[in-house]
Amino acid sequence: MRIAVVSVAPLFPDLVIGGSQKVLADVVTGLKLAGHDVRVWCCATKAHFGDFEISGVVVHPELKLRGAFPSTHKVAPIDLAQTAKVLREAGDWCDRIYLHADAVYLRHALKDIDVIRSIHDYVYEEALISTLSLDAGATIVPSAYLKACIEATIAISGKETIERIFVAPNGVSVPNEIPIPRLPVSVSPRDEEDLILLFPHRPEPTKGVIEAFQVALEVQKLKPDKRVRLLMPAYSNGKVLDESVTVCQEIYALAEQYEASELVELHEWLPPNEMPGYLASGDATLCVGSFIESFGLIPVESIANGTPAICAQVGALRQFEGIEGAILVPYGDFQAAASAVIDITSQENDTCLSYGRLQISDAFSEKSMIDAYEAVIVRGPIEQRRITMSSEDHLILAPWVYVNDQEIFNDYTSESRRYPKLTEILRTGSEIRCDRVHASESLEIEVRIALESGVLIPKYIID
Questions:
Q1: Per-residue pLDDT tens for 37-71?
Q2: What is the enclosing helix (H) or strand (E) of 357?
Q3: Each residue of 124-160: b (16+ CB within 10 Å) or e?
Q4: Can you tell me the distance from the alpha carbon of 59 to that of 11, in angstroms, rounded to the nearest whole number?
Q5: 70 preceded by cis ω (within 30°)?
Q6: pTM reported for the whole predicted model
Q7: CB environment 358-383: b (16+ within 10 A), e (fewer)
Q8: For 275-300, how does the pLDDT look when each residue is reduced to its tens digit (9 = 90+)?
């Protein structure tokens, strides 16, 4: 089958910026190895100079669908017209179009070609517009969490139908042996008294830059005999490949503001082949930001390469509860995160993580991911499902919240709020009957606040 892959996110020959780009590179490589004729069209940037290949798959950086952050939709009309022409040519060539992290609003250019799409976040405007306004024959997502968020949003927005949504967990390569630790050449070698914390994320504020500073500072307080080193990738001013991120000078300024300058060490963005050794070089990996991950590749990649991960209980990171080496803590609880670092680094990590690496290999294999994508793409469009709202006046807990004792954490506000009466009711079931809340004034107030803040949503059924 001839498969045209379209990605609004840019791809690069030797760098991977973000988890969805890694997934895309793995998927197109797998589709080619499965015998399909695959070509990729992605957005162009100033760093692109003509076509290139990823594992033998030709990539055409010819699309002009996004501007510089934050004006991502600020695109010249002539650029959109030229992009529509490119999309028509891709449609004429292929049997199926796969829109990776769909944000392609020029649907008319795709004519009658069957469209399969994937969604890899539910934060950015492009993803929200795609699911609420643009049609697809089927949608692929990396987690049950993201599937539930999309379905709930579409249902309560008033739409009456929804396409089939398939969960294909992101795949991770688990090496047979933990790699030899290798720090970036731009930072000093490891000393015996070092305690190295890794922050292998895009240096975007919501990914937890400031939170990582605060956790590192708490760790240093708890272990004054150690030299805590917080390693972060950053772009130099001349090499900004993603306009939405912070560059070196801004990170250093933030570190100084939070009195963490002595702990922070910045290095260049690393190519994929250097990541296993880098992840193996840390004592712990920090995933403590407020970004609503739809999967969370970094924690599983870190554990796969022998380093435990401290994760905030935000979004799909909650799915890693029970995986050896993944320690979940409430978002914003820097003391809990620091204590988790101390506890896990005092253990024998090789022994501790052996079962975690096995769990990851079983649950998140690259082959399973590629097979799932291929099955959905080759199968093509499937009949839409009907959405009906519950005839009774029932409310349910939104999929983007997390109940912790008497508090409920909302991923989209990054805040916890006490709901003592509501959480007491929820411990006996997942639904709230509106006709029964009036018996308690305090419960009625809590339910009203929960509805206004999106903690509770109307019950719906998808056939």
A1: 999 999 988 888 899 999 999 999 999 987 665 55
A2: helix 349-363
A3: eebbbebbeebebbbbbbbbebbbbbbbbbbbbeeee
A4: 8
A5: yes
A6: 0.93
A7: ebbbeebbbeebbebbbebbeeeeee
A8: 999 999 999 999 999 999 999 999 99
